[in-house]
Each structure stands twice: as C-alpha cells, then as structure tokens.
C-alpha cells in the first residue's frame, strides 16, 4: 500500500506536464494556476470511485506516458490526457478499522468490577527514578514497539538516518538540477521537458517496485529490506556517473535510473522503520528519519552542487571576458559544469550504500525469521 500511494506522487509530475503542454503550451505563468486548482478538483471528483484495479490502470498510464514522450518530437502532437490524481481510500487504516470492528462484534469486551485495596504509601525507590534510563540501555527486540526515546538512542535508527541523508539528499539534488544539466549539455528545451517526464514516470515505477517487490522478497525469500535499499543506492551511483561522463543520449538513461532509484528509496524507508521499531510510535519515528531528506538536499544541493556549479559557470564567463553583471542568469555550458558536483554525489551515495549495508549485517538474523508472524497471529485470534 505504501508503494502504491507514494507511486501516485511520482506519476503525477509526468501527468501534470502533459496537461500543461496540452492546455497552455509554453505559458509558464499559467502553470502556477494549473497546479493550484486542478489537483483539488480531481480529488473531489474521483474521491468515491477508488478501487484496487486502478493499480493496473496506473501502470498502463505510466507506459502510455513513456510512449508519448518518444513521439513528442512530432511537429503537431495530439495529447490524450487521462489524469488519475486522487487520494486512495483503500488505505491500511481502513482495513485495520474494519478488522477491529469485526473483532469487537465477535468478541465484545467483558466488564469486571474488582475492589482494589487502597495503595499503601511507599517511599520512592532509586530504581524507579532510573526507569527511563533503563529503557535506553535495555531495548525491546527488533520488530517490537520501541518508545521514541529508545528508537532515537538506537544504532539502527542512526545508521538508517545516515543512509537516508546521503541517499535521498543526493537523489533530490540530481532531480532538482536535471533541467540545468540538460541545458549545460546542449539539449533543446523540448528534450529537457522529456527528461523531467521520464524522471516522474520512473519515480512511480520505483515506488511501486519498492512497495510490492521488496515485500515479496522479505516474506518469501527472507531478504533484508536494507539489502534492497543498498542495491538501489548503488544503482543511483551509476546514474550520477552518467552525468559525470556523458555520451550521446546518456541523459535519457540517467533520467530513468535516477527517477527509479529516487522513487524506490522512500517506501523502503517507510517499511524499514515499521519493521524494526514497531507501529506504536511509527508516525513520529518515520518523520524523524525524513528529517534527513531536506537536510541532505540542503547540504548537497545548495551548499555543494550550487556552489561548484556557480564556480564553473563563472570560469566560463571569465574565459569570454565577461562579468557576472553582464548576464541575466548564470548558466554554465559544457560537461565540466556538473562533473565535480556529481562525482561528489556518487561518492556520498556510495557511502550511504555502505551505511545501509551495515544495517543489513546488523539485522540479518531478524529478517531471516518471519517478521510478520505476530501480525498473522493477531489476525487469526
């Protein structure tokens, strides 16, 4: 369910691009208006029509958008628009609510009144005062419900945070700079638009893959979830190296690889947090891990890639005997503009893969067992 829900987020970017091109052409001002009213209107229109088979429709739509991008070079194009942008109602919470109501109907709670003796006044013991500290050092088994304090003092949590910081931070940087990369390598604007659509489409495939395939691997083959995250991060490294050492058409491949790896990381993060630390404080712990996302983007996008790109662009102006004030936008042309930044991104992503591999080693015994056994027992009972 996580992979499906997050997949719609990735696919919506490609859909919005096609609607924008069909309705407004290249009017950039109208784009802001479009993204302001269209998602809300579609959500209201389709909110009561969601069914499970829309997954198949969404995959067909993604394939169609890929084909559409291949034929976008035609002089006159006809855009066939099918926008499925809604909030899926078949969420896990709905099924849990139905199961809980049925369970209460079958086995209603019995009220028992017991006279309790009045508690005697007992002086506080030193051990009671140290109970919160004991919880830090004596943590529950992996998969049980951790408290927030227990999770935040867990080595597993900080290793996952580190992998997310390097992995998702680098991926966000690559996606955010895709347009300027295409411009630096000399691609026309229409082709750059295709790159953006490809990233969104394969972002969808990555999220659905991470949601469905990874769960099959965990349940059927007992493969650790962090191992699949490691492989996804290594795949992202390959995409960054395609920018560092480009060849004709390499940016198409880079868009697919980066979009897929970027999309696959988030559902895996969601799953790993729930599997290792339980569901009682899931929302708090998940949002803590997601703090690594904007922090990584700030470090690698603003402070690293932005600084190195501006420096390379300024060198290009200097060679032309121009000053910064003589141009409106600081734009670098040539493969050298993004070479060093993406070497850095590939390096830190590889370090993130190593961090994820450490988590694989630490959790291999946990994932070798049936991690969903207790949930099955609760359902049967």
From TrEMBL:
Q: Does the keyword Membrane apply?
A: yes
Report whether Signal shows up as a keyword of the record. no
Which positions fall inside the NFD4 C-terminal domain? Answer: 150-368
Annotated signal sequence is none
Q: Which InterPro entries match?
A: MFS_trans_sf (IPR036259), NFD4_C (IPR056555), Nodulin-like (IPR010658)
| Topology versus the membrane | Multi-pass membrane protein
Q: Name one Pfam family in it.
A: Nodulin-like
Question: What parts of the sequence cross the membrane?
Answer: 54-71, 157-175, 195-219, 231-253, 340-361
Alphabetized UniProt keyword annotations: Membrane, Transmembrane, Transmembrane helix
Q: Which residues form the Nodulin-like domain?
A: 1-52
Report the locations given in the UniProt record.
Membrane
The protein's name: Protein NUCLEAR FUSION DEFECTIVE 4-like
The major lineage groups are: Eukaryota, Viridiplantae, Streptophyta, Embryophyta, Tracheophyta
